[in-house]
Amino acid sequence: MNGRVRSILRAAQPSPRRFAPAVLAGVGTAVSAIALLAASAWLIARAAEQPLVLYLSAAVVAVRAFALGRGVFRYLERLAGHDAALGQLAAVRAGLVRDIVPLSPDGLGRARRGEMLSSLVDDVEELQNLPLRVVQPLAVAVLASLASVVFVAFVSWPAALTLLLCLAVAFALAVGVGWAAGARAERAIAPLRAAVADGVYDLLVSLDVLTAFGGLDAARARARSADERLRRAVVRRGVAQGATSAAVSLLAGLASLLALVVAAPGVADGTLSGPGLAVVVLLPMAVFEVFGPVPLALASWRQVRGAAERIAETVPDRIPEGLPHEEPAPTGAAPALGEGLVLRDVRAHWPARSDADADAGRLVDVSLRVGAGERVLVTGPSGAGKTTLAHVLVRFLDYAGSYTVGGVEARELSGDDLRRTVGLCEQTPYLFDESIRQNLLFARDTATDDDLLAVLERVGLGAWVAERGGLDARVGDRGALVSGGQAQRLALARALLGGFPVLVLDEPTAGVDPAASDALLRDLLGAVRPDQAVVLISHIDVPPDLIDRSVRLESGRLA
């Protein structure tokens, strides 16, 4: 896990070449601010001695130059820093998506949707703070502070040692106080944010079910409780950051007082001028202003590391056991079905199973043949391995044994290529919050409206679409505006547009009224071309005239 976290953090940090201009501009900003105060202090103290104006002109010009330089460098710092950080963040997002694709869908089954959303959005967003709020402020503070100590040493080395000691104590306080007071709250914020997102998501998506079964108040209470815990954690973090900043500010004043104590004797013995004393006494204030972001940078580091750890937990660097590994590159061509699908002694299981349910859904030595145009019913109790078989057929899950498509071992085919031949209609089909047209075009983007209307007529939705106002009618988030049967018909229409030689229908009547299930099955299977093979998975009885033969799975084996 530590190696994965480090790789995520390295990916979030821009290269030194790209990030160096931002750091250098930040140092320019800090040095300009410190030099502005030093020049102003010297100018005011020297002017009090009433020298000729000629002796003050250089200091006047320096004050103007440092004031202008601070603004210019600040603009360049923001411009270069955000350009590098946001550009790197885009690369991190793209890399994360590449890591997720081999895991989807079955390698992500243990992650709740709200937690996944938080990891992919909030935690990835948090990674941009690594260069902007951690690396850059720390680098600028260290370089500017060291430069200031060196400068003060040329004026008064006792004052320089005092400044260095106060900076070291301030850093220790920032680390110690910040860690003791705020680390726990900072670690809790992101998981609590994920809990809030998960609670709100469940509340909105399942609003109808919660209302029907009287669970709405409990769901609201869970979301409200998670939000309250998040608020308390944010307040605790703010208090810790405020206490740390207050301690650093007190040290800034102490540094100036100590500089006055150790440097004042130099004025008495003539080794230090009055303007020089003003510089070494006031300079620590400017240095500690530059040092001020350090406590916040340390707090941001803890949050960034926590975000990287959660991303590492959600998206592992290795594909879990049970998922396809090292697939061939896709060719873009669908393998010929030929002699059909042939499974011989196939064994498969879901990834990341606990010991308690390791056997649930496992396939053990399954042998099955599905020829072109054949309709095979797979039955069995819940947990017998029916959905596991469906996901093996489309290569969402890996397998042991032999599984051939048209005589070619499935391992030798890219999953994308295989799924051009074997299509899956899942138990709960996913419908996008788009129009009916767009939901169908995902299957074949070259289809015309006439093609779409024709396939909708085949699945029994022609009249329904006309009543809804045509192809532009929306289906709602995850099909919220359509019934379960209509969602299954839309999913089948999408599959028919894909032209798969083999269709795997996983529990197509789930969530459909039992009285209407036979009619739905007749419509679904009636819409399939005669030359298309169908693997129908169902735990309920199916009219025998709709299928050619049936097999039964029990405890992962064919009975």
Automatic annotation (TrEMBL):
Keywords: ATP-binding, Membrane, Nucleotide-binding, Transmembrane, Transmembrane helix. SUPFAM superfamilies: ABC transporter transmembrane region, P-loop containing nucleoside triphosphate hydrolases. The chain crosses the membrane at residues 21-45, 51-69, 138-155, 161-183, 239-264, 276-301. The keyword Transmembrane applies. CDD domains: ABCC_MRP_Like. It comes from the Bacteria. SMART domains: AAA. Residues 22-303 form the ABC transmembrane type-1 domain. GO terms for molecular function: ABC-type oligopeptide transporter activity; ATP binding; ATP hydrolysis activity. GO terms for biological process: cell redox homeostasis; glutathione transmembrane transport. GO terms for cellular component: plasma membrane. It is a multi-pass membrane protein. It is found in: Cell membrane. PANTHER family: ATP-BINDING CASSETTE SUB-FAMILY B MEMBER 10, MITOCHONDRIAL (PTHR43394:SF1), ATP-DEPENDENT PERMEASE MDL1, MITOCHONDRIAL (PTHR43394). This is Thiol reductant ABC exporter subunit CydC. It comes from Microbacterium lushaniae.
